[in-house]
Amino acid sequence: MTGRKRLWGWLADAALILYFVFALFPIAWMAILSLKPADQLFSTYFSFTPTLDAYRTVLGDSEGIPFVRFFVNSLVVSVGAVALSLVVGLPAAYASARWRFKGSENLMFTLLSFRFAPELTVIIPLFVLYQKLGLFDTYVGMVWVLQLITLPLIVWIMRSYFADLTPELEQAALLDGYTRKQAFFRVALPLVKPGIAAVSLLAFIFAWNNFVFPLILTSSQAQTVTVGALSFLGGDRPKYNLTAAAALVSVVPPLLLALTIQRYLVRGLSFGAVKS
Amino acid sequence: MPPTTSLKETDHGAASHEEGTRQVRAVPRWRRGLRPYLLIVPALLLTGGILYPFGLGLYYTLFDFSASKPQPDMVGFENYRTVFTQEAFWNSAWVTTLYAVGAAAAETVLGVGVALLLHRSTRVGRVLEKILILPLMIAPVIAAIMWKLMLQPSVGVVNHLLEPFGLGGVQWTNTPTGALLSSIAVDVWVYTPFVAVLALAGLRSLPVSPFEAAAVDGAGWWYTFRRLTLPMLWPYVLVAVIFRFMDSLKVFDIIYALTEGGPGDSTVVLQIRAYLEAIRFQRYSFGISYTVVLWAVVYLAATVLVRRLGKIQRRAAEVTE
Amino acid sequence: MSVSDTLNASARPAAIALRGIHKAYGRRTALDGLELDVAEGEFFCLLGPSGAGKTTTLKTVAGLEQPDSGTVELDGTDMAGVEPYDRGVAMCFESYALYPHRSAYDNLASPLRSPRHRLPASEARDRVGAIAELLGISALLDRPVGALSNGQRQRIALGRVLVRPARAFLLDEPLSHLDAKLRQSMRAELKAIGAVRRTTTLYVTHDSVEALALGDRIGVIRDGRIVQSGTREEIWYRPRDTEVARAFGRPRINLLPGTITDDGRFCAVDGAFELPVAARTAAGTEVLAGVRPRDLALGGEGHELTGTVYVTEVLGRAVEVTVRLGTQHVSLVVPRADATHLRPDDPVRLTVRPENLLLFEADRPERPGRRIGQ
């Protein structure tokens, strides 16, 4: 009985390890590819002479692809989009968690529908519109369109955090002699700070990882790493080691941030539908 | 007694009279009602900024607007008629359905499986759980690039690893079926952790008492799983499935980077078709019509699935009781 | 009656006056035409079961809830539209509502840092120190509130109310989460605090013992209305209906069903006994005769009843004796010495003074029976 049980335990662990090999191998393989010298790309698999040439090339912009600029662009538009969504979304999330008022649910569900709308429905008209307005290939244009991703996320998640907070704390502050604004800033806001941090990072990751917006709405000035990494695959002779290096560099920020917000991830990924 | 001295004492009877004489300011009812609206005004403006192009897009679909015709004419519903009579549309709809159903099903089975294995909380499991979400945090387009390099038929590492088993030389993305399956595989690679994370949260929040009761009754693993775990876990899983199914209906990044819709038309899902029409061929109105149709499909799917979710949540609540 | 009459007649307006307050949440009515007067400096207990509208009443006074109709007056001033921070009232929440991210000291000092009640830092420190001393929590001030016990939190919450000047204290079940022993000692302490003695206090509780012990006056609230308000004596001796009568006193008041006879006496349903009541009601009316267990005696002066002992139960120094009168049971509380010889089925002679008898209409499904005699 116990022997059979232990066997099942081993099999279960083995299955788990098998899945994680599947999950992690591509990342490991990218690391290997990115360290290969160009002349060993197609002639070797696991034994080669490692070199950082690919990284030097990618980060040195020497292939005519300004990757560092793309990286900075990603940073600017993602941070900008999250900041705008926070400034605009926090009051809205607070209002809809604290008051019942006409139109509140309409706004919330309109925002939720953005999460599931096919991006191109909005982007193609924006592509035309941005050309007219001069927003094509600009930071402002990107920050605007990224609201489609960051705003619903931030409003929905923060609403669930505010709703979890008993209104009596703010009421106590009102009776202590504070105004509503002070009650919000002194009591409500500090208490949802972990939520704000987590949702901001998650929104940043999603903004960073977006591909279709910069693909269509930027060309060179405001292009981001996701589009940039793909461009290493273009051209007559694809440079696999450069592509791998670019891919790895572009996933470093989201991966690092993701590991710091694991605890809060479930609520964020499910738009507040599941809390852990 | 002056108020300052009275405050220093434990009692402050005098100060309380001070309260009564203070001038108070009344806020009229309508201004109080206005408060939440003031807070959502910025969000409303921004939402409008997103709804405007959407509305503009809908409007465009009634014209024959394209790069070659910047002064478009009103054509009514002609664009939609063309969409629905085009064989390319039905092909895309079919491919999209296969992709969405295949990816969502595979991710659900695999994700719930991984969650169940991780829920055992063995030493191996606890270590692996920390890195579970890594693929999910990688941009799908980057994931597709990674897999594209690995699936390269002649020099890719996957065929190299399969060679000893006599399976080398598979034309992964170069055959219609292979291309679709490869795309689904990338989707599964990225999003299985999504299902697993939600299912694991669900497993961890299940009440303990029904399981204890079942153990006391001597119920077997399979019976417990079928009769208790699954029905109670199902609402969590279904949230994940809804997200995954609706997201894969509008897949774009993975296919764009992995196959660009090829070979032939074999992986041209609806958003790729819309992209090709609107951006490649610059037939804006026609391309948007495609996305509007897709939007309607997603909306319908969402309504049906969310209603189903409500039903299943009620049933799960009954099991818990 | 008499106290509130003199209050209304006096020149000074009530410290807290609620007039015809209606408040509904969706389809559920919380307050249904609530009327309430609390006099300057009075300690007023609002007693009622959960869901009766007690907390809503407090929050309406505080301005945290807006009534759908009706007016709230503080010291004679209509408070419609006046913000909570402009009303000058302090409130202790049932949940305590302490700021979990702050230390005990910061919680206590919070009002003194607000724009309304700001004191210079050094004065605030002295004041918080004095309040902490008064409540015996000086040693806890540096701790985060998460590290405090329920009793300690309760004191912090009370301290946050007492630390600042207020024209009224609103206390929402402040003792309900404490264990029985602590509750009893805090009850005594609360009334002894000078600020509480002097300041108008509206105190909400579901515990009738607490209400009787603390309240200068008591208001009984049910289904969003004040059923009766008055001094403890009025509530005790002149309950408005059977439910108020049942709410006070343990063991509960005996309510014996019967009818009024032609000569105006009370006759039990089974005809086993009669009681001399001053009935102002027609013969044949179905009624309930009320007598409190402590108003029945074994022997002594008064109207006599004979029955048999059913069961006895020791309650500390007294004994609760349940006596069978025909098919009905009545309970009485007698000194232990008088009951030691009693065994089940022993015949006993009970006496009751006619002035201690209450007469109610029979309870109806839609409302408890009103008091119609004495």
UniProtKB/TrEMBL annotation, chain A:
The chain crosses the membrane at residues 7-32, 70-95, 107-130, 142-162, 183-208, 240-261. It is a multi-pass membrane protein. It is found in: Cell membrane. InterPro entries: BP-dep_ABC_trans_perm (IPR050901), MetI-like (IPR000515), MetI-like_sf (IPR035906). Keywords: Cell membrane, Membrane, Transmembrane, Transmembrane helix, Transport. The keyword Membrane applies. SUPFAM superfamilies: MetI-like. Residues 71-261 form the ABC transmembrane type-1 domain. Belongs to the binding-protein-dependent transport system permease family. This is Carbohydrate ABC transporter permease.
From TrEMBL, chain B:
InterPro entries: MetI-like, MetI-like_sf. The chain crosses the membrane at residues 37-60, 98-119, 131-150, 188-207, 228-246, 284-306. Residues 93-305 form the ABC transmembrane type-1 domain. SUPFAM superfamilies: MetI-like. It is found in: Cell membrane. Keywords: Cell membrane, Membrane, Transmembrane, Transmembrane helix, Transport. Residues 8-22 have a biased composition (Basic and acidic residues). The keyword Iron does not apply. CDD domains: TM_PBP2. It is a multi-pass membrane protein. It holds the Pfam family BPD_transp_1. The keyword Transmembrane helix applies. Residues 1-22 are annotated as: Disordered. Belongs to the binding-protein-dependent transport system permease family. This is Sugar ABC transporter permease.
